[in-house]
Amino acid sequence: FFYHIDTTATKRDERQLHPHTARFFIRTCTRILPLHSHTHYTMTSTNDNNNNNVEKTPTTTTNTNINNNNKENKLAPFNPTCTHAQTIALNLLSLQTSDVLFDLGCGDGRFLCKAIQHIPYGLSCVGVEYDEMFVTRAKDAVANLNQELTTKEEDGGGEGRKKRSVIEIRHGDVLNESIISPSSTSSLSLYRDATAIFLYLLPKGLKRVKPLLEKAALERKRQQQEKKKNDDDNDKPLLRIVSYMFSIPGWDPIHVDRSTKGECPVYLYHLT
């Protein structure tokens, strides 16, 4: 099968979810059709409000920078975050104009587009996605949103010379450090620049990205020590992380929001 589900981890976290939501999520994740050559099928919901409407979308990937045979690098199947959960996540992250937001496994880019609608000026966003089809969709969504925002500015709804919030979509493996943390200082780095991170991964995927998050937190702490910030700044979290649906193994969230339809949890972490 194209995706492998960690049944033990999934059942452990299933107890934290509304029973119907948990069963649907697990069933959706496991209903992946066999892989033939380089063509695979991804299950995508056609309606956020009707989870039973699911379509099978064929796609062919040919990017030579990614080893398509390495199925273990896929940390989760595509399952879009509902609009309500996106709003909750953005509120929990408390984004400001100086923040750098990373979405690891950004899918079609809908969360990042929501973020720059929420913070239209000064926010920098980076989305990393493994599947070429969704990378294309994400880039198209960003281009369309930018055109929409430009039109609003031209119609008099702009903010003068303020810097527009930007989104960069990267095609690659989240576990590849050259993708998430390029050596060039002109590119935003998860380790060097990230102040906020959004995750919607399976428990197995969260376990694999956890060391990356810890490394990012250590780098932010080192930067803080070098700059010798004021006491007030030291009270602020070095890195804010939101994980939708599943908790990060071994970490205690500072807040859990269950106000979404089906009581799907949204976990907030502060790495200090």
Automatic annotation (TrEMBL):
Classification via PANTHER family: METHYLTRANSFERASE DOMAIN-CONTAINING PROTEIN (PTHR13610)
GO biological process, one term: methylation
Alphabetized GO MF terms: protein-lysine N-methyltransferase activity
UniProt organism field: Ditylum brightwellii
Listed GO CC annotations: mitochondrion
Alphabetically ordered keywords of this record: Methyltransferase, S-adenosyl-L-methionine, Transferase
Record Gene3D superfamilies: Vaccinia Virus protein VP39
Region of interest: Disordered: 43-70
Protein name: Methyltransferase domain-containing protein
Species classification: Eukaryota, Sar, Stramenopiles, Ochrophyta, Bacillariophyta
Family statement drawn from the similarity comment of this UniProt entry: Belongs to the ANT/ATPSC lysine N-methyltransferase family.
